[in-house]
Structures are given as structure tokens and as C-alpha cells.
Amino acid sequence: MTDTLMTDIGKGRKAGILGVCVLAQLLIAIDMTVLHLAIPALSEALHPSTTQVLWIADVYGFALAGLLITMGNLGDRIGRKKLLLIGAAVFGIASAATAYATSAELLIVTRALLGVSAATLMPSTLSIIRNVFTGKERTAAIGISSGLTILGFGLGPLVGGALLAHFWWGSVFLVNVPVVVLLLVAGALVLPESRNPAPGRLDVPSVALSVLGVLGVVYSIKEIAHHGLGQADVLAAAVLGVGGLGWFVLRQRRLAEPLMDLRLFAGRAFSATVGTTVVAMFAQLAVSLTLAQYLQLVVGWSPLKAGLAGLPGMAGALVGGTLSGLVIKAFGRAATVAAGCALSAAGFLLYARIGVVVDYPYLLLAMIVFGTGLALILTVATDTVLGVVPRERAGAASAISETATELGGALGIAILGSVLGAIYRDGLVLPPGLPAAVSETLGGAVQVSAQLPSSVGDAVLATARHAFVDGVHVTMLCSAALMAALATSVLFTMRGVPKVLEDAPPNQPQ
User: Fold this and answer.
1) Any idea what DSSP says for residue 499?
2) Which of 71, 62, 113, 112 is nearest to 217 (CA)?
3) b or e along 273-293 (b: 16 or more beta carbons within 10 Å of the residue's beta carbon)?
4) CA 26 – CA 153 distance, rounded (Å)
5) Per-residue DSSP letters for 432-485?
6) C-alpha span between 131 and 285 (Å, rounded)
7) The dihedral of CA 474, 476, 482, 488: what is its sign?
8) Cβ distance 243 to 370 under 8 Å?
9) Which of 169, 184, 453, 476 could form a disulfide with 38 if both were Cys (CB 3.0 to 4.6 A apart)?
10) What is the DSSP letter of 429?
11) Among candidate residues 450, 357, 383, the one with its CA nearest the CA of residue 143
12) How far apart are CA 408 and CA 282, in angstroms?
């Protein structure tokens, strides 16, 4: 089946299609968040070096970000259903291999394979939704999928904590296998096939340049957050990344059949929405960076209890995603995104008042307000990106949107993480002679304090916790200011985007 409109699909099958796509997105979202809980246990079992631990944590994201553009275009060519099913099968195999990895080196390889397969799933699910649903129906479908995907990020620590309380570290990856089997069976039965009827040839040099450029930029941004700009490998990666992306853009302008159609950015709705996604994901990393550490290392809750505590807050994301269609109908897309930014800013301001002693009802309010706002932003952004491009380019547009998400997140980790670390170090008042780990991270301070005499250890831990919370306050205030500015800007950059986005003519973005 090519990209002809799928008007003959009944409501029941459409619900099944949406369910399969959401299942694939949940699989990725949960897998992104469970690893951090498993690192202590797998470190004890496999004895990785410090560098290997970093690669175990980051290689998944590197592979995912580097291949999104290529995989989105590949789905347009060979078929989105086919790519999704192939990617899901590889994801299941890689999950099993990761669970039973016998060395740190093998674990790094299998995590990279998980990232490659995840890069096939993300644009495929959005492309399928774009081709099956139209107009208001598409907005509602994306709202549900966005809300549930954000909920998946909250489920990750909960699932990981529950499994690690009873099983070995590999269980957090092995649990993916039955989900993948369900995904493969249901996907084969209910998903329709769609592809670009005239995709053109795949330009291999463009593939190489896109992978080199995105990987170089993402790697250098993340490494700057850890080690600063002075490292030779970081500088080399930055030069290769920026140079690769620059060469990639120049090549796309000359090709008759480009890997990334730069004409998409000529549409104000498309370019403004992609930019909004980058900034929104940048700011929301403040919550991702701090909340788990706050609940576990400051408050002292177990990973399972921290996961349970964060889950009700994710319900706000489900509410925001589900109600986004109604808000768009009442106020328009620009106002809906602005409202989402304003709610996110309010959530950040609430987070900026948390203390060393937790007030859970207050924290829950902050989570719900923030989650509702974030879901409004991401739902409208995703729906707009997909709605303003022709259906035959849905895979490419999805890949651009997901790449913007990854780049925004990487920038957030680098910049906001650096702000948090600087405030933490400046706020420490410690006795001389303590290990450097105390001043590097709150986790290091917790480990060192446990080895000191109780009076000294308690004082060190109290100082570190107060310094971390001070860093959280500054980081959240910075993010609140950024989201407030974004709320104002989208009223102008997204002005005039229709409430309902019908199909654009072939090869002509709106």
C-alpha cells in the first residue's frame, strides 16, 4: 500500500493501530529510564571501568540520535510497518542479549544495538499515525500517544525498581522480550503498510554525513557537561559534528532527491514548531536531571518508592495530551502551546521551592502542573510537524522532530547540568582532606559520608544535600524563565497556524 489516504480503516482497527504505536513508544520510553537504576548492580557483576560505565549509559542515546534521520527516510522507502516490525524484532533480540551480557564490552555493543533498533521505531510509529489519522482525529491520537509516552518515562523507574528488588540486573532488559512478542504479533495483524510511492534513491554519503554530524554534536555536548571543552576528543568531536552537519546541509541543497528536504523548513509552522521542541526539551531536562536524585539521595527513598512517588505526577501528562485537541479547538495552536509553556514555567517555579525535607503533596502539585504543560507542548508540536507536511514525507518529518528532541535534551544535560553542578560545588562547605568525589556529585557525597565517622559523615551529607537543593532552585528558576520567554515567542512564531491541519498537497508543505 502506498501513501493513498486510508479511509477504509474502521474505528476498531484504528484503535488497535494506535495501541500498537503507543506500545512501541512506551517500550522505548521505559528502556531509556530503567538503566540508571540497574547501573549499581551491573557494575558489581561486570566490574566496568568508569569510562565503560559512561559508554553503557550513553551509547544507546548516541546510536538513537545518529540514525533517526536515516531510519525515518528508510521507512518512507521500504514501508513504515516493515521497518517497525524489523526494528521491534531486533529490539527484542538486543534486549535478551543485554540481559545476559557477560562483560562490559558486550553490554556496550548490545546497548548500541538497542539504540539502532529504537531509531527505527520512533519515526515509524509517528509516520503510521500520520497516515492513518487525519485532522482532529490525528490530533487526538497524537495527544493520547504523547501523554502515555511521557507516562512511560515515569513508569521506567517504577518497573526497574520493582524488578531489581526481586531479580538480577538483567531483568530490567529481559522484561522487554514478551512486550516485543506482543508488539510483533499485534503489529503484523493490525498495522497497514504505507510508503512514499516515489521515494527516489537513498544517498549514501548523506547518510554518513548525517550520522557523523549528529553523533559528533551530541557526543561533544554531553562530554562538555562532564569534562569541559578542553579535552582533545571533545574538540575533535565538535569539529567533526559541526563540519559534518554543515557539509550535510550543503549537499542536501544540491541533490534532486535529498535525504532531508530542507524545503520543509521554509514553512513557518514547521520550522517554528521544531525550534519550540528543541527549547522545550532543553528546559524539561531540569526535571529529569534532578527529581530522581532529589527523591533518592536527598529525601532518602528507595528507587521503587521514588518511582511510585513520581507516577501520579505523570498523570498530568496524560490529561494534557488527551485534552490538547479540545484546547486547540477553543483557542488555536499558538495559544495552546503558549499555555503549555506557561504551565511548565509554573511547574518549574513550584519545583524551585522544594526543600531538603520533602512536602509530598506540594511536590505532587508541581509534577502535575509541569506534566500537563509539557504534554500540551509536545502534542501540538508533534501534530503540527506531521500535519503541515505531505503524507509521503511523514517519516522524514518524524525523524526531524525526534532529532530535535534528542538535541534539545543533550543541550539541556550539558548546560543545565553544568549550572546544577557549579551551584552544588560552590555551596559546599567541607572539612579539608575529604575525597574529591564529595565535590563532584551528590551521589559521591552519599558514598563518602557512609565511610566517615557518624558525626563527620552526617555533617558532610547535610551540607551536600543543602548545596544540591540550592542548585535545583537555580536550575528550575532558569528553566522557568526560559519557558516564560518561549510562551511569549510562540504567540508570534506559530501565529496563523490553522486549528485543524488537513492533508497538504503532495510534495508541498503548508
Assistant:
1) S
2) 62
3) bbbbbbbbbbbbbbbbbbbbb
4) 8
5) TT--THHHH-HHHHHHHHHTS-HHHHHHHHHHHHHHHHHHHHHHHHHHHHHHHH
6) 31
7) negative
8) no
9) 169
10) -
11) 383
12) 5
Whole-number Å distance between alpha carbons of 154 and 287: 12
Whole-number pLDDT of residue 458 = 84
Residue 476 pLDDT: 92
At which residue does the C-alpha cell 506482543 appear?
182
Element containing residue 92 per DSSP (H, E): helix 80-99
Q: Are 207 and 67 in contact (CB under 8 A)?
A: no
Q: What CA–CA distances, in Å, run from 460 to 311, 444, 467? A: 31, 11, 11
Give yes or no for a contact between 405 and 65, defined as CB atoms under 8 angstroms apart: no
Question: How many whole angstroms separate alpha carbon 234 and alpha carbon 54?
Answer: 14
Burial class (CB in 10 A: 0-12, 13-18, 19+), 344: buried
Angle at 296 between CA 295 and CA 302, to 5 degrees: 115
89 vs 173: CA distance, rounded Å: 14
Q: What is the C-alpha to C-alpha distance for residues 163 and 158, in angstroms, rounded to an integer?
A: 9
Give the pLDDT of residue 4: 44
pTM for this model (two decimals): 0.79
Q: Distance (Å, rounded) from C-alpha 430 to C-alpha 445?
A: 11
**Ranges of residues in the chain whose predicted pLDDT is under 50:** 1-5, 505-506, 508-509
In whole angstroms, what separates CA 430 from the centre of its chain?
A: 36
| Residue closest to 144 by CA, chosen among 400, 446, 390, 378 | 378
Unique residue bearing C-alpha cell 528550575: 476
* Residue 362 cell numbers, joined: 506540594
Alpha carbon distance 104, 48 (integer Å)? 5
pLDDT, position 183: 92
CB 383 within 8 A of CB 430: no
Which pLDDT score is estimated for 230? 67
The answer to whether 183 touches 27, Cβ cutoff 8 Å, is yes
- At 28, which helix (H) or strand (E)? helix 11-46
- Cβ-based neighbours of 218, under 8 Å, separated by 6 or more: 61, 62, 65, 66, 241, 406, 407, 410
What is the rounded distance in angstroms from the CA atom of residue 236 to the CA atom of residue 247?
A: 16
Largest interatomic CA distance in the chain: 73
Instruction: Please give the Cα distance from 505 to 58 (Å, whole number).
Output: 40
**Unique residue bearing C-alpha cell 528508510:** 74
Give the 3-state DSSP-derived string for 214-264, with helices as H, strands as E and coil as C: HHHHHHHHHHHHHHCCCCHHHHHHHHHHHHHHHHHHHHHHHCCCCCCCHHH
Report residue 19 as a C-alpha cell: 495501541
Evaluate whether 165 touches 304 at the Cβ level (below 8 Å). Answer: yes
Q: Where are the alpha helices (DSSP H) in 165-203?
A: 171-174, 176-190
